[in-house]
Write a structure and sequence with these properties.
Distance between the termini of chain A: 48 Å
Largest interface: A-B, 70 and 70 residues
Number of strands of chain A: 17
Number of domains of chain A: 3
CATH architecture of the largest domain in chain A: 3-Layer(aba) Sandwich
CATH superfamily of the largest domain in chain A: MoaB/Mog-like domain
Largest sheet of chain A: 6 strands, mixed
Oligomer: homodimer
Number of helices of chain A: 16
CATH topology of the largest domain in chain A: Molybdenum Cofactor Biosythetic Enzyme, Chain A
Strand content of chain A: 15-25%
Shape of chain A: globular
């Protein structure tokens, strides 16, 4: 079953917003075995929308539209769809009541346009939007399905998860499909691929391995599909097959795999700390607080994270972390000696059990022939031992900060497991 | 002149990557008066690429393709384009030499596929890619232009800026257009719009105002176009008109406008600090280092930023920032008293001239009837005065962190200007 995603709205065409919806939708559809064969974007005019719909449906079974349902633009998309499907428009009391309740709940006045917004094409199956005001719409014609959703990401995500995906699974019952993603940090795609060559060559035909790289991390997604006629045990067998293959994969990369599916490195580190009842803090120079930000982006981080010291200057390194001035003079701020002293100093200053310290040259300036831009030292310490590592990343300031955070969190993870 | 953007690659269709290229390209094209009338994405097959091209060119004068030129996929897109334009392929020595020099410079081995990559359709004008290895291609047929660029963002951006945009401006000389963007923080779109109603109603027909909202900020973009036949002074006159209108706009929103065009709030705050030779630091609870991260994402931040203290726990607030234990007991960590003491404590602990302190309930848990999730107190202090404000944001943890950072930096800006 092929899906086409159609985004409606001038704000996409003028580049005012980046379309993150369609990548999210693609992943969700893919995970359920629906294939996205095309995406397109059109402006807010009847002519453009109809042209986009016709091109989309010529090659897909399902067209999912997003956008064009906001309070100011409501009329064009909705009326265009009503015209396209030859449907009358009628006031829909339930939608109106739901909008009134929604606006009351968020403490805002019901917009004057509410009754216009509650007027819907009678031929559409309305999809109840509990995350916002405009309902989604589901039309069918000639065996094809047309779905219209609001463009606000969390409203679209709510409607996809609660209404669209379950209905599509009913409407187009497919072959069983299952996924398992292993998360790795600290090694590049090509080096991982060479370690997995034999594993990949021996995979059964119905299991695929995909490499999904991002900055300093590679996700490895195993996908198993059931190619024969429906079988009552298909789901269980696929699940077992995938678990076996995931275990094999993990055994091949014990040093790299840190988690599964929707984990993040900061969540995994947080869970390790919490399970061991350890308090953790950071002493950050070049990352300027970014590692602490990642740690505290996880709800409940206060259970294991009391705080951090960001020591951007020499003086803060000596005053707040107790780094010896002669260490800085002798070895410089970006050195093994300095990050070791920073990590040990953070244990005392923050009163924590484990500390991560990083110091590097984020760029774009500040490099020397000895220590080019991108050079980063990091250390992890507890009361018994300290471990330190050096990396040379690239020239881009923000990427260097992000890479340092990823490698630093991974160093903490390995330290905790050692 | 109408442009269609066509992205090629399965990685977009499966949602493995979010397409940020086309929003960037749209903005750049728009700024020069070229209109993007459609966008679409197709997979890596000859059939899909040709179908995408035919649909695109049916409604546009220029089709800009990105993606499909990487070392592993090179063949399909390039061969498809050669077939589509009836062009032979030939080895291109200059491209090969450039690739060899590029790989030597980044210290990697020239890939085995280099000579395949250097084989190009002879009918294409090759666009030299100094940011990577694969050149862009420019084809013309029946008065329409077809451009193929690599999908790697910085390679695409290089080729757009250095090759594509100047050539398009020559090929489709347009009417003069000019833009000026005013950046505001701390007020919502609808409240700004009501303050600007008379201004908008009195704008000349050739000047448009666009609202570009993001989290806690709204950018106001003025665009002036020259509607008549080319006139030697058109550019100068447009510039003067825009500057006058921008000055009027700023005078209407003196409390909200913080900068122009590509500024960011952290850059503006940094420039103010540097100009006044002030040292600045933060004491962060709920933002967990995110404000320091924004400050240090600006190159050269070490000139005015020595460090920060992230005090996530009660103990860190008392131990590192000198908050009185009885203040925490009496008023709680999220209170005016606490953030005032945190800001004053940061002045001493960090030895800075100005400090920002924030404390709030980021969520999703931890709210009370008194202090719901999203409640944030913030204070800015120097040696003479302290100012504090309270906000109630929403329920989303990451949005609360980002909004706190934006409002906090804006509070510092206003404090410095007061």
């Amino acid at each position: 079953m092929n899906v086409h995603l159609l985004t409606i709205g001038d704000e996409i065409l003028i580049g005012q917003i980046t379309d993150t919806n369609s990548a999210w939708m693609s992943r969700q559809l893919n995970l359920r075995g629906f294939r996205v064969t095309g995406k397109s974007s059109v402006g807010d005019t009847q002519e453009a929308i109809i042209h986009g719909l016709e091109q989309a449906v010529s090659r897909a079974d399902v067209v999912i539209m997003t956008g064009g349902l906001g309070p100011t633009k409501d009329d064009i998309t909705k009326k265009t769809l009503a015209d396209y499907f030859g449907s009358e428009m009628a006031f829909h009391q339930e939608t109106y009541d739901r909008m009134a309740a929604y606006f009351a709940r968020i403490g805002r006045q019901l917009p004057a346009a509410a009754s216009i917004q509650a007027t819907q094409p009678v031929q559409a199956l309305l999809l109840t939007n509990k995350a916002g005001s405009a309902p989604g719409m589901w039309f069918e014609r000639d065996g094809k399905v047309f779905i219209s959703l609001p463009g606000v990401p969390f409203e679209m995500e709510y409607l996809m998860a609660e209404e669209v995906l379950p209905r599509l699974a009913d409407r187009f019952p497919g072959k069983p499909i299952a996924h398992r993603t292993l998360l790795t940090a600290g090694e590049g795609e090509s080096n991982i691929a060479s370690r997995l060559e034999a594993f990949e060559n021996n995979l059964p035909a119905n299991v695929k391995l995909a490499y999904l790289p991002s900055l300093g991390q590679v996700r490895l997604r195993l996908t198993a599909t059931w190619d024969e006629a429906l079988h009552p045990d298909a789901g269980v067998q696929l699940h077992t097959l995938l678990e076996n293959k995931a275990a094999e994969l993990q055994a091949l990369l014990p040093d790299l795999v840190y988690g599964y599916d929707n984990d993040s490195l900061q969540q995994v580190v947080g869970r390790l700390l919490e399970a061991r009842r350890l308090q953790f803090g950071t002493a950050e120079s070049c990352t300027g607080g970014y590692i602490a930000h990642l740690i505290t982006s996880v709800p409940g981080a206060s259970n294991y994270f009391p705080g951090s010291i960001i020591s951007y200057s020499y003086e803060m390194k000596t005053k707040l972390l107790g780094v010896q001035p002669q260490t800085l003079v002798r070895s410089g701020a970006v050195s093994e000696e300095t990050v070791r002293e920073m990590a040990l100093g953070a244990l005392d200053a923050l009163g924590v059990d484990v500390a991560l310290a990083v110091s590097g040259i984020a760029g774009p300036d500040g490099g020397t022939p000895d220590k080019p831009v991108g050079t980063v030292w990091m250390a992890v310490a507890d009361r018994r031992r300290t471990t330190a590592e050096k990396y040379i990343f690239g020239r881009d300031r923000l990427k260097n900060i992000q890479l340092t955070a990823t490698y630093g969190l991974n160093l903490v993870r390995k330290f905790l497991l050692a």
